[in-house]
Amino acid sequence: MGWRGNFVLLNCVVLALAILSSAKKISVSYDGRALKIDGERKIIISGSIHYPRSTPEMWPMLMKKAKEGGINAIETYVFWNAHEPQRGQYDFSGNNDLVKFIKTVQEQGLYAILRIGPYVCAEWNYGGFPVWLHNLPGIQFRTKNQVYMDEMEKFTTFIVNKMKENELFASQGGPIIVAQIENEYGNIKGSYGEAGNEYVKWCAELAQSYNLSVPWIMCQEGDAPQPMINTCNGFYCDQFKPNSKNSPKIWTENWTGWFKKWGSRDPLRTAEDVAFAVGRFFQYGGSMQNYYMYHGGTNFGRTSGGPYITTSYDYNAPLDEYGNMNQPKWGHLKQLHELLMSMEKVLTYGDVKHTDYGHLTTATTYTYKGKSSCFIGNAENGDRNITFGNRIYNIPGWSVSILPDCKFEVYNTAEVNTQTTIREKVSSQDGKIKKPFKWQWRNEKIEYMTQEGVVDGSVITANRLLDQKVATNDSSDYLWYLTGFHLKGSDPLFGKTVKLRVKTHGHILHAFVNKKHIGSQYAPNGQYDFTFEKKVRNLRHGLNQIVLLSATVGLPNYGAHFENAETGVHGPVELVADGETIRDLSTNEWTYKIGLDGEKYEFFDPNHQFRKPWLSDDLPVNQNFTWYKTTFQTPKGREGVVVDLLGMGKGHAWVNGKSIGRYWPSYLANENGCSSNCDFRGAYYDSKCVTNCGKPTQRWYHIPRSYLNKGQENTLILFEEFGGVPLDIDIQTTRVKKVCAKPYAGSTLELSCHDRTIKEINFVSFGNPRGTCDNFQKGTCDSSTAFSVIEKACLGKRKCSIEVTKSNLGQTGCKKHNRLAVQVAC
Q1: How far apart are CA 502 and CA 40, in angstroms?
Q2: Positions marked active-site
Q3: Distance from chain centroid for Cα 114
Q4: What is the pLDDT of residues 222-273, one digit of tens each?
Q5: How far apart are CA 568 and CA 718, in angstroms?
Q6: 134 pLDDT more than 50
């Protein structure tokens, strides 16, 4: 490859980023080339950070790291059900403090992109809609339906006014430069016919009626009415074209990885492939792109959707779930961002010329005021030699080379010159003799009817099976269905093998007959329905009771008419013998009770005073419907804190009364499909390059440090639904274990152990080393002085900088293609 020295303009990147002042009002407009700030075309490189998926204490740190990574805007959805959980009752506290979040964006000198929706998808429970909305008479979501449109307009107006009141739009001196209405409607609009078309027009008119003086966007909406800007979402958007020549090319969601569902493997989208997609986008005229996600975060509480979306929303993003830099992705993209920003004028004002070399290889030249910048892109898997401007360039397969002066290549998306950071989770008692936690426990109450058919605390009785979300209003994952029936001595059920058969659209079902648990079952792969069928051995003369506990694991968040998906037990509920239905209980009188006793009496609150104390003796294990409580000390330092729940089944966890989400470590990922080798070349898809086969889908659960008490004990409380063993549960921290890299000659390598020091140099080779991290080997030509140079520069330090050149590391005997391989322990 060509010259790879440091590009001088990269040192001035901070000056290229717009630093917003709370006192300065700015105008935002656009044309067919770019967004315009105060009349000047700008490149916007944005990153998604969702405020409810992190904490106010984390926001400044996340944004600071995003800015250091070359991001100049933060994008977030607005989550309706988080803010209006009950109709007319609003919540903007804690993690839901949207105003504080946007103000934090401004304090960090960044722009904000506000995607109001208010439908968000986002793998968020019910797509962001509050369930009470579904229960309004005559409503139909996301179409020309007056009941829905009235509520949508009311909430959207509420959010817009809240932003206005706090002067957060750019025209008021705030950071918000773009707003979004609706979300990915074009994907499902055909299901709504002409009413869908009318709805899109209404959304556009509503947005414009606010007169915000900032552009409005509609993502994935090819016929967005002017002046709405239609935008692209996906893994690749280089070939996307807006529906108007007066609209800039905007990529609202560049998926940096993928989400996880219970039972799925860990996704990996390589740094090379993400950079390739970004390079192609800007090569072909893009001017604003947003990473979805830049920090994914955590689905605290019951916010994960799906169903079956995990509590972790790490998304393989440049900043991991705990806010750590995900290297090499963060660093490789940082270098790309700095280079693109240094080329801002020529990319947004320059004349454009494309040269097609065939075989999916093109060169693009931007020329402005005597300055030219070039891209050479190769979308085939094999390398190609390209003659361009009287020079020959070797362009690796599936890569984009960037030549800021159209002569010297400064960056290639396939060549990573940043470190790979390998982290580990260690016990907070690391270095000490681990002491097992002291556990207390209490049982969850199993609901039954009295002889008079009364259920304590029940609120609903009906001669039919009710939809779970209608009955609960999504106030709990759990709904009890209770009914009874009488048997006489001559009943045909006696003397036969009887089974209880239940058709359910819930995700989990627990069944009890006459106070005996006869079985539990969950839907495989998050399917929407399954049939439960178990033998009943304890029927008796007189009154018999059937008690069903239905549980959900997040409500659907995507698809046309998703709000109509049935949830819970819809039947039939039958007693069968010899393959025939002997008794159908579906139209019996059913009594319903919402939620768990422990939810009602707040067992998760460590300060709650109970009439009956927690028990300390005879700790039950592998017992379902059990609450556990223990205490632990706050780990020292600033590293991310997690609880390792290996050994538990499924349930919910709280720390100091704050929910850290659902857990399900007993749900193992698919055993097949993982590979130790990952080729970044070729189009990415969600099952490419996956890892973690056959292991718990999610073993570790994030505890934000702001949830912990300083200098005091903390309380961990678990509700175990399936049955587990809490004896090996451990509080751990995430830390850097080792760092490795394999940069090309001509680059500068930054090595960092972050908050730890480099304690050992494990491997160094400069020349033609082979292998990858943990498997490096020296090649046929090797510098004899490189090890001592690295040792002197790095050992005992938290970070060090190495010029990857022969003058610094020593002669190698290799005529070309010199690389440095280095691995250090932290």
Answers
A1: 64
A2: 184, 253
A3: 18
A4: 999 999 999 999 999 999 999 999 999 999 999 999 999 999 999 999 999 9
A5: 24
A6: yes
What is the C-alpha to C-alpha distance for residues 128 and 121, in angstroms, rounded to an integer?
7
- Distance separating alpha carbons of residues 378 and 387, to the nearest angstrom: 13
Q: Which two tokens stand for residue 234?
A: 């996906």
Backbone angles phi, psi at 294, to 5 degrees: -90, -35
* Rounded mean pLDDT, 192-208: 98
Give the containing element (helix H, strand E) for 59: helix 59-68
Q: Which amino acid is residue 423, in one-letter code?
A: R
Note the pLDDT tens digit of each residue in 434-458.
Answer: 788 999 999 999 999 887 778 888 7
**Are the C-beta atoms of residues 704 and 55 closer than 8 Å to each other?**
yes
State the pLDDT at residue 4.
38
Q: Average pLDDT for residues 730-757, to the nearest whole number?
A: 95
Identify the H or E element spanning 386.
Answer: strand 384-388
Residues 6+ apart with CB under 8 A from 615: 440, 441, 442
| Structural domains of the chain sorted by starting position, each given as residue range(s) with its CATH number in brackets | 8-323 (3.20.20.80), 422-443+600-734 (2.60.120), 460-595 (2.60.120.260), 742-825 (2.60.120.740)
* Cα Rg of the chain (Å, integer): 29
List the 460-462 sheet strands across, edge first.
460-462, 590-594, 478-487, 542-551, 508-513, 516-522
pLDDT of residue 449: 87
Contact 411, 399 (CB under 8 A): no
DSSP 74-96: EEEE--HHHH-SBTTB---SGGG
- Phi and psi angles of residue 340, each rounded to the nearest 5 degrees, phi first: -60, -40
pLDDT one-digit tens code per residue, 5-29? 344 333 333 333 344 444 589 999 9
What does the pLDDT read at residue 18?
A: 41
Question: Could you give the CA distance from residue 105 to residue 107 in angstroms, rounded to a whole number?
Answer: 6
Contact 292, 255 (CB under 8 A): yes
Q: Residue 644, SS3?
A: strand
- Buried b / exposed e along 99-110 (16+ C-beta atoms within 10 A): ebbbbbbbebbb
Confidence of residue 610 (pLDDT cuts 50, 70, 90): confident
Q: Going edge to edge, which strands form the sheet with 440-443?
A: 440-443, 626-633, 713-720, 651-655, 658-663
d(CA 629, CA 618): 14
Counts for the chain of helices (H) and strands (E), in that order: 14, 41
Spatial separation of the C-alpha atoms in residues 643 and 729, rounded to whole Å: 7
Q: Cα separation of 823 and 775, whole Å?
A: 10
Residue 571 host element (H or E): strand 569-577
Give the model confidence (pLDDT) of 74-98 as tens digits.
Answer: 999 999 999 999 999 999 999 999 9
Q: What pLDDT was estimated at residue 23?
A: 53
Q: Is the pLDDT of residue 579 over 90?
A: no
Q: Does residue 307 have a cis bond before it (omega within 30 degrees)?
A: yes
Secondary structure (DSSP) of 793-811: HHTT-SEEEEE-SHHHH--
